[in-house]
């Protein structure tokens, strides 16, 4: 997920060549480099204690704005050659993405934005001209965007709903001259006018260019999707397929041996079936808060089955061999994992909840004791299910965190950088290459692989 986040920001930089509306200058793309270079640049950026902005984000800074004109009965104010400065100096307040409905919301915070330019103030008695500075303090920008699948099978960003607010505005007009004190009260009321005038322009420009650049990148992504199945569920179906192909379903456990004195127990040919029957039962979310990436998932499996051959011996007095099979009706996991955007830090398991269905066991080889064993195994675990699950959660949390502590996230990202280089495939002229529709499964067929 962290790789995908880096890739998203990198993609914005890769395609930030869209010409702005209203004759604004084109974004400079003369030194773009490779996707790998940009991801490394982003990784290094977030190693800072208090990172500001994102390297290569397609935000024009400074951003030219149209001339502003404000008139009253006795005076007219014209503001020309104005630019907004500081748009790239944001901090990520919050990002939240619901992968199921392909919706992402974000909140960016600016310490300040500055509008700098020249003004002319005329009235019945005089004319003043000079430079001005409008400082907008505590700026908060929010946006919500949705991805959708086009008829060609490409992902596309729809309109991004955005809003911007502020805490305070400070104004400084130079060279007001003799009538400065007379018009100072009027000048102090211009803050809201300036903000309300530039707000729609900033939102429209950011929306148009951000959406356009994202869509230009997405049109070059090799993978296409059906519009009848959420891409997330299609991806999970691909994961189920990969789980089987890599030999994890069925999965063979190592043989187990235990001995104490003259007693010994050996289990061989231990197999688990159904590990690849997982599916989404709730939301899968990705969020960023306080420079920490959080991934939340709710998944469950269908029935998991297992079997083993075993041998029990009591010295040379008694020896029995047998066969045991078991099944768990379902296994459901609700987990959250945190990863600092500073990839030198290891992932942390924030939350883990586990629930299991009915447990059934069948045994053959102990004679009458088979019935006793089955009775105990089938009744006791179900009666004490919640106590057993609580104990398992603590053990699983500890083991999972131990494994997460061994992950070198920076090395993992660098190892997979080459895999990302082929994510897009424009032709020699830089135009989008469309790939023929794939033979996608329909809504029912996609879940045939986990149907009982």
Structural summary, described in words:
The chain is of the alpha+beta class. The protein has two domains: 161 residues, TULIP domain (Bactericidal permeability-increasing protein, domain 1, Super Roll), CATH 3.15.10.30; 163 residues, Bactericidal permeability-increasing protein, domain 1, CATH 3.15.10. Helices cover 28% and strands 37% of the residues. The strands form two sheets. Strands 1, 2, 3, 4, 5, 6, 7, 8, 9, 13, 14, 15, 18 and 19 form a 14-stranded antiparallel beta sheet that branches. α1 packs across α2 and α1 crosses α4. The longest helix is centred in the middle third of the chain and has 30 residues.
The major β-sheet equals: 14 strands, antiparallel
Overall pLDDT, averaged?
Answer: 78
Q: According to CATH, what is the class of the largest domain? A: Alpha Beta
CATH architecture of the largest domain: Super Roll
- Return residue spans where pLDDT drops below 50 for at least 5 consecutive residues: 1-31, 425-446
SSE class: alpha+beta
User: Count the strands?
Assistant: 20
Strand content: 35-45%
Instruction: Please provide the ordered H/E string of secondary-structure elements.
Output: HHEEEEEEEEEHHHEEEEEEEEEEEHHHH
Please tell me the total number of domains.
2
Oligomer: single chain
Distance between the termini: 31 Å
Rg, rounded, reads 31 Å
GO molecular function: lipid binding
């Amino acid at each position: 997920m962290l790789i995908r986040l880096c890739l998203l920001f990198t993609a914005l930089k890769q395609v930030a060549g869209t010409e702005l509306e209203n004759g604004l200058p084109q974004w400079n793309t003369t030194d773009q480099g490779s996707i790998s270079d940009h991801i490394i640049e982003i990784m290094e950026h977030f190693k800072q204690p208090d990172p500001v902005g994102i390297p290569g984000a397609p935000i024009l800074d400074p951003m030219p704005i149209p001339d502003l004109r404000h008139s009253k009965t006795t005076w007219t104010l014209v503001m020309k050659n104005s630019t907004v400065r500081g748009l790239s100096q944001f901090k990520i307040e919050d990002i939240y993405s619901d992968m199921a409905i392909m919706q992402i919301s974000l909140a960016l915070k600016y310490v300040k934005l500055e509008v700098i330019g020249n003004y002319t103030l005329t009235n019945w008695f005089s004319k003043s001209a000079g430079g001005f500075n409008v400082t907008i303090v505590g700026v908060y920008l929010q946006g919500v965007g949705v991805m959708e699948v086009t008829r060609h099978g490409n992902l596309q960003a729809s309109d991004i709903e955005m809003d911007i607010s502020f805490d305070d505005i400070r104004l400084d007009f130079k060279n007001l001259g003799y009538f400065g004190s007379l018009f100072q009260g009027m000048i102090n009321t211009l803050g809201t006018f300036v903000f309300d005038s530039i707000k729609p322009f900033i939102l429209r420009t950011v929306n148009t260019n951000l959406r356009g650049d994202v869509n230009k990148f997405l049109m070059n992504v090799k993978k296409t999707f059906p519009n009848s199945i959420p891409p997330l569920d299609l991806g999970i179906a691909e994961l189920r397929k990969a789980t089987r192909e890599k030999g994890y379903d069925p999965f063979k456990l190592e043989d187990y041996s235990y001995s104490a004195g003259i007693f010994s127990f050996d289990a061989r040919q231990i197999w688990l079936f159904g590990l690849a029957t997982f599916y989404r039962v709730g939301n899968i979310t990705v969020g960023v808060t306080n420079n920490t990436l959080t991934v939340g998932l709710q998944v469950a499996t269908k029935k998991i089955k297992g079997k083993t051959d075993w041998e029990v011996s009591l010295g040379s007095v008694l020896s029995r061999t047998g066969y045991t099979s078991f099944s768990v009706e379902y296994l459901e996991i609700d987990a959250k994992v945190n990863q600092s955007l500073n990839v030198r830090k290891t992932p942390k398991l924030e939350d883990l909840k586990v629930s299991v269905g009915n447990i059934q066991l069948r045994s053959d080889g102990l004679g009458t004791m088979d019935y006793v064993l089955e009775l105990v195994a089938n009744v006791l675990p179900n009666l004490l299910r919640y106590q057993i699950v609580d104990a398992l959660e603590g053990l699983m949390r500890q083991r999972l965190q131990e494994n997460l502590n061994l992950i070198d996230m920076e090395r993992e990202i660098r190892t997979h950088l080459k895999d990302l280089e082929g994510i897009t495939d424009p032709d020699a002229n830089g135009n989008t290459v469309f790939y023929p529709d794939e033979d996608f499964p329909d809504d029912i067929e996609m879940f045939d692989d986990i149907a009982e």
